[in-house]
Every structure is written in structure tokens, then in C-alpha cells.
Amino acid sequence: MSMITGAPGRAIGTPLDRIDGPQKVTGEAPYAYEHHVESPLYLYPLQSDIARGRITHIDASAAEALPGVVIVITHENAPRLADTSDKEYAVLQSEEVAFRGQFIGAVVAETFETARHAAHLVEISYDEEPHDAVLRADRDDLYVPEQVNAGFPTDTEEGDFEVAYASAAVKLDETYTTPMEHNNPMEPHTTVAVWREGDLTLYESTQGAHPVRRTVAQVFGLDQKRVNVVAPYVGGGFGSKGLPHANTILAALAAQMIEGRPIKFALTRQQMFSCVGYRTPTIQRIRLGADEEGHLTAISHDAIVQTAKIKEFAEQAAVATRMMYATESRRTTHRVAALDVAVPSWMRAPGEAPGMFALESAMDEMAIACGLDPIEFRIRNEPEIDAETGLPYSSRNLVACLREGARRFGWESRDSTPRARREGRWLVGSGVASSTYPVFRLPGSRARVRYEGEGRYAVEIGAADIGTGTWTTLTQIAADALGVGVGEIGLRIGDTTLPQASVEGGSTGITMWGSTIFEAARVFRERHGQNPSEGDEVEAGTPENPETENYAMHAFGAYFAEARVDADTAEVRIPRMTGVFAVGRIINAKTARSQFIGGMTMGLSMALHEESVVDPRFGHVVNHDFAEYHIPTNADVGEIEVSWIEEEDPHVNPMGSKGIGEIGIVGSSAAVANAVYHATGVRVRDLPITPDKLLPL
Amino acid sequence: MRLSCTVNGEKREVENVWEGESLLYVLRERMGLYGSKNACEQGECGSCSVYLDGTLVCSCLVLAGQAEGCEILTVEGLAEDERLHPVQEAFVEAGAVQCGFCTPGFVVATHDLLQRNITPSEAEIREALAGNLCRCTGYEKILDAVRLAAERMAAS
Fold first, then answer.
1. Residue A160's closest CA among A366, A318, A331, A333?
2. In this structure, are residues B114 and B145 in contact, taking their beta carbons and an 8 Å threshold?
3. Engineering a disulfide at A303: which of A317, A325, A467, A637 sits with its beta carbon 3.0 to 4.6 angstroms away?
4. Chain B residue closest to A268 (CA)?
């Protein structure tokens, strides 16, 4: 087993091995489905076969007659929920069907296969109504949401875009589209629900134990103290486990009906394509105007996204464009279509990931139109302050990332002419793109520090580790905050019996939980000094950061990709990518590097592979499994070189760190697309870049 | 049916098994061996990789009945006493683990590769792990871990 060692006060910045590594490589780490419970039952959901209408009749007699079946639950016998204002959580509360694949019931049985078999014996009749499940730009029912995800304003306007654009020397007006994509963490969404004597325990696959408790308590009308959520290990999330979904409510409903018996409910991979969120498809029109020297004078970004009729989620695709480059005039808008579809939600860098594909593709096109190298063009349009807030940046080292990346990648020798290099059957090219992600803040975390004697400290916070490395990095942070070695820290996370923590979302985990631990450690030392007595304890909340009034805070990065495209088949290979990041202080080089590489790989995947194909006739995702929804295998990923520049940012938080969970995916798809253009001379503005969009070459 | 097999060197008998269940289900839900993961149910992701009579299989694609009388080795059976297997050690040290859900499958597949070939080429490593999907790491550190394990096992 790996030893945890280290000198006091210097844990942050060391490439400590994962504390949870040994449990994970031996298969001992208990994920949600794997906690020991006595006499469990298994739930298999019933899902609607229509995209819109009403259930008129349910015949569950054959299913109920099957040995081993305990109950068939539908809206006809399900308990009424206390709060049905959020329609995503109003599970089995009416006969209405709002999208294909919606939960309309469940079979609970003694074994999983019995439940699955019985579910197929339930006969359901519908009164079907016409549905509409396809996003198009020419719809006449696009609406203006009150705000977009993360609370950003829907539209913005600086200067007079129309006038500036009309008089620009160089212009670009193009539309970029990205498809529906599904998060697909490796661990399927899982709940094991136990309802016993009025207390509900949920072993949950989630990015936030406390947020799940809040939602479930509200939906069921329970005191939060009666709900406990346990999630020490989570097999990935990428946003889809950021908010609870209907599966959690369904499992809890079943547990309520069968008190005392634990209900185990893990979605199958196929079911994950119907009800746990996804990235909306986007249609994004970008217009850029520049003067003769390549200075941008006009930028506009108009994004169209979809949401569900039962609940609004408006992805903020145009938000990064508000701060990325300097310009005299700028306009951004978001319009939304409400469709008969499942509720879209967070998927790694919602907003920035599709938005920066569009903007960074457009920047590449515009650089060419201006006759400038794409790096030089970006540097020429580097802003001095944050245009959105009028504040200076706490640190902004995009230019340094571009220059360092160019050096590492070998950009200098590049011939800017597209389709200029051919090696045998391969057309070879290279592309660059910028990246950014905000330093978000989420309120409401608390941390507890307790001295346990013999030099050891317990540090407790209900934070989540979805694979990001929280177990390890918070241990490092706690060690430095208390001025002890990492071996003296006993960290506890992932449970609502611990002090409450904000969700692992928006790349905020380390900023919020780390700041809170620093505060608790400070208060602990203030009260109990350097020589505390066993049992001395303090709890503290997240401190305010007054610097957010004075500075705009964002992380930045730059990507370089080499593309090789088969001249006959248009198969695209990406043998190497380089990423350089400016993200403040790196807490743990080992976990950070792997996250950056993983993020860039997901960007590569977005560029070349991922697309959830909706059949408009039925309103469901056709390619709903790993055979048909393609994510990269190791053969699809070449060499990915990641580095970061030393960035001191004393303003963001006590660690000087910026979140790194999402920035890796932002813009990396554009670097690939730009490289494919350079290799082939064909500009694909519609992801994913599949051979049919490149041929004939 | 009653299923009799040997798992990680231990004789196991399980009653009331439905023949159509997967070996993965038996391991996880009937024996409490949760190391092998269920992530796709169709042999695409390799998260449920185990040895069945010495052959690497996706246990989600093996029917419980097919395991009758067989010897099964799972990720739980690789470490000896308290000491991690060199493959497991290498995965931790190389930073090849993130969420950990694909990890047991990768560890078993790597173990299988290095049993057969202690000096695998780059192409052989990539081929051996072609059936394992990871959503977190981008594979780079997993490949590093395999190289590290191979190096150490060859040296010892």
C-alpha cells in the first residue's frame, strides 16, 4: 500500500498518489450499488413508449403474477409527493407523458432479472398526441428565457454591433452546430433507497450528497434530518450527477411503499440516454467584423438551444464570447425551443464547451480572412479588462499559454496554407484554439476540524469525489491549512452526516471546499492554538471573498492539435495534442494532469465521435449504448502533452487555485476542427466531424 | 439451479441461481464481490473483466450456467495478503485511476496481458486494452501504468 508522507506546510503542489487508489484498484471502494444492505429488492423501471400523450390503461396482472414480483408501481398506486412544482421530480403523479422514455412505473422484485422480465409483461395503452422533438433554427416558437444557466443574463449588448459590423473591413458570418450529447459516466446512475421508521437513507451516485438531500426532502415533504445521503465513491458524473434526476425519486417512492426493504436501482446504460440529462444540441450563428489590421470591431454570438416542456434548462452557449476577446461592439443572445424531450442538464462545461467550439472555429476562419496567423490574431485581440464586468482580471495568461504551447508543439514551422502537407495517403494539418472557464463560487459549505490526539486531525466536509481527486487534494489542503503533514489528516467526505457541502459542479469543488477548510483551520488555531487537547473541535462556513468585487476571475488555456486525414476515406486521426493551462496553483500535479488529459480527450471525442441521434418519428435516442454512441477507445487517443504555466493568483482563494475539472474540454474540439481544416481545406462547422462531412476530399 | 464454482481460490456454492443471469450478477449480487463493475451490459466497456478458467472474459456476457465447475479469478483475487499486485501498484503510482469504475477491468486486462507477454510492444498494449473504455483519464496514464508494471515485473 502506498504511504502517505510529507513535511508539514508543503502538501499543496506535491504529486501525492491518490489516497483512494488502493481501494479502487482492488475493487474494494464501495460505489452506490455496493454498500451492504440486508434483503434488498431490485427495481426495474417502466418507460413510456410514446413522446407525448396520456396513459389510458395499465394491465399489470401478468407481471404481478410472476413469482418473485413484489409490486408493480404506477401513477395509479404511487404515493402522492409533497411538492410537484418541479415536473422532472413529479414521478408517477399523473397519467401525462411528456417525453419518450419517461418513467411511468416500476417493477420491484426479489431479483433484478425477475424485475426486468416482469416489466416487459406490463401492458400499457396510451392516448397518443403528436410530438415535436427536433431543434431547428427556423422554428417560430423560439422564446427568450429570463436568464440562462448559472444565472447569466440572456442577452447582452455593448456598443452598436450593427453599425460596427456593417462598416467592418473584414467580415465573417457563419453558423456552427453541435449535436445532443450524453455524459455517460462509467458508473450508471444508481440509488439504493432504504425507508425505515420514517428515515430515508439513500446510497447515491451523486456529485452532491447535500443537494440530493435537500431536493428529496422537499419532494417528499420530509424534514432534512430524516434523509441521509451516502456517496463516498462515485464513478464519474461530468454534470449528469450534479442534480438529482427522476431515478432517485423513483427509488425513494418504491422504498416508501415497501418500508424496511432496501430498493436497489441502477440504470442500465441504455436507460441513461432517456432521463438523466444531456447536452442540448446547439445552433450558433457567429458574426465577426475586423479592421484591416485584424482588430475585432464587432462580435455577435446568437445561440439557439432546446429544453424540455416540463422544465427549463437554457444552456449559456454564448457566455464565453462576452469576455474572450476585445472589440468595440458586441452582442450575444440565447433563444430556446421547448420540445417534447427529456430535460437537458449540465454536461462538462455547459455553455463554454459548445460555445467555444463555435467561437474558436470562427476565430480560426477570421484569422485566415485577415491574413494573420491564428495565434497572432488572438494575441492582437487580447483584452485589457473583462468587458462583461469592467473589472481587471485577477490573472489572465492566455497569451502566455498560446506562446508556450506554440513552442512545445512546434507551431513555428507551420505552413499556413491548407492542404499543403501530404504524407502518403494522409493529409496532415495542425490547429490551435483558446480555452477559458470561469472561477465560479457556490455558497453554503461548512467544514469541521477536530483534534483526535497523537498529532492527528479529523477534517470533515460533505464534499464529493467523482474521480476528480477530492479525497487526496482536500487532504493536502487540510494539511497545509493546519500546518501538519498529510499523514496526520483523517479526511471524511461524501455523506450528509458531515457538515454540508456545495455540489461538485462548475469546477468549484476545490475553491469552495478548500476555502472552507482553510477557514475552519484558521478558526481552530485561533481558538485552540498549536497544542490543542483531544476532542477540541470547530466548525466554520465558507468565508466571503471580497476580491470578487474587485477582479474578474477566469482560468485560461490553449490547445494545439495535429490532424491526419485519410485522403480516400476521410478517416480522421489525431496523433498528438498539446494543452497549456493557466489555472493558478496546481494542488496535485498527478491528479491534475490526468484531469486535463481526460478533459482534452472528451473535447477530441466531441469533435470526432459523440452524437446522440434522435429519431424524430419516436422522439428517442436511437444509438443509446456504447456500441453506437461512440466515445474514444485508447486507439483513438494519441499523445496528449499537458503543461501549465506558473501562475500566482492571490485573489481567487487561499490556495491560489482555479478549478480544472471542465476547462480541458473547452475549445479542444475547435483545435481539432481547425486542424482538420488545415489538413484538408474543408471546414466542418457541424459536429461531430465524420467522414461524410469531409468527402469528397 | 445450484451453481458451484471456484472464485479467487475458494469453493463457492450458490442456490436458486437463474441460468439466464450473468456471471457478473452472480459475482456481485449473490457473492458480494463488487469489484467487477456493470457499466454497459453488452461487452463494450470491459469494466466487468474476469478470468474464467484462465481466459479473460466480460462477465456480463457469460451466463451463470456457463460458469458451473469453472475457476474464476476477479480483481479481488489479484492482491496477495495485504500487498497490491505490481499491476495495481502501477495504476496507483502512475495516476491511472480517476473515478475508478473502469479500473478493475483495466487492472484485470493488464494482468492478463502481462501474464502472457512480459515485454509487450506499444501496439500490443493498446490492442490488449482495446476492449476497455475509460471516460475520465484519456488513457494516457493507464498506458503509462501498463508500461511501468511491465518494466517492474520483467525486472523481478
1. A331
2. no
3. A317
4. B40
- Report yes or no: A25 and B103 within 8 Å, Cβ to Cβ: yes
Cell of A235: 464513478
Domain ranges of chain A: 21-29+443-543, 33-129+204-269, 351-441+545-697
Q: Give Cβ neighbours of residue A333 (< 8 Å, ≥ 6 apart).
A: A154, A155, A300, A301, A302, A303, A318
Q: Is B99 helix (H, G, I), strand (E, B) or coil?
A: coil
DSSP letter (8 states) at residue A499? P
For each successive 10 residues of chain A (697 residues), what is the average pLDDT? Answer: 49 96 98 97 98 98 98 98 98 98 98 97 98 95 98 98 98 98 98 97 98 98 98 98 98 97 98 98 98 98 98 98 98 98 98 98 98 98 96 98 98 96 98 98 97 98 98 98 97 98 97 97 98 98 97 98 98 98 97 98 98 97 97 97 97 96 98 98 98 97
Number of other CB atoms surrounding residue B81 within 10 Å: 4
Q: How many Å apart are CA A78 and CA A98, to the nearest integer?
A: 18
Find out whether A446 and A541 touch, Cβ atoms under 8 Å.
Answer: yes
Q: Which of A2, A188, A466 sits opposite B39 (nearest CB)?
A: A188
Coil vs helix vs strand at B3: strand
C-alpha to C-alpha distance for A457 and B65, rounded to whole angstroms: 51
Torsion of CA A630, A633, A636, A637, to 10 degrees: 130
Decide: A355 and A301 in contact? Cβ < 8 Å.
yes
- Cα A86 to Cα A90: distance, rounded to the nearest angstrom: 7
Q: Which CATH architecture has domain A21-29+443-543?
A: 2-Layer Sandwich (3.30)
What are the sequence ranges of the domains in chain B? Answer: 3-77, 86-155
Number of H helices, E strands in chain B: 5, 5
Given the cut 0.95, state whether the ipTM is greater than it. yes
Q: How far is CA A362 from CA A216, A288, A359, in A?
A: 43, 8, 5
Domains A33-129+204-269 and A351-441+545-697 share a fold: no
Residue showing cell 445561440: A303
Q: Does A67 lie at the interface with B, CB-CB under 8 angstroms?
A: no
CATH topology of domain A351-441+545-697: Aldehyde Oxidoreductase; domain 4 (3.30.365)
Structural fold of domain B3-77: Ubiquitin-like (UB roll) (3.10.20)
Identity of residue A529: G
The owner of cell 408501481 is A73
Q: Does A185 touch chain B (CB under 8 A)?
A: yes
Q: For testing the chain B interface, which of A110, A594, A606 should be mutated: the one with the most B CBs within 10 Å?
A: A594
DSSP 8-state symbol, A382: -
Whether A412 is catalytic: no
Q: Which of residues 12-51 of B touch A (CB under 8 A)?
A: 18, 20-21, 25, 28-29, 32-42, 44-45, 47
CATH of B86-155, one of 1.10.150.120, 3.40.50.10140, 1.10.10.10, 3.50.50.60: 1.10.150.120
The domain A33-129+204-269 is placed in CATH, from the list 3.40.1350.10, 2.40.40.10, 3.90.1170.50, 3.90.780.10, at 3.90.1170.50
Q: Which residues of B touch A15 (CB under 8 A)?
A: 95
Residue A280's φ and ψ, nearest 5 degrees, are -60, 145
pTM to 2 decimal places: 0.97
| Chain B nearest-CA residue for A589 | B95
Q: Which residue of A has its CA nearest to B46?
A: A186
State how far the Cα of A402 lies from the Cα of A375, in Å rounded to an integer. Answer: 7
Q: What backbone phi and psi angles, to 5 degrees, belong to B144?
A: -60, -40
Cβ-based contacts of B20 with chain A (< 8 Å): 113
Phi-psi map region of A620: left, alpha, beta (phi>0 left; psi -120 to 50 alpha): beta
Element (H, E) at A71: strand A69-74
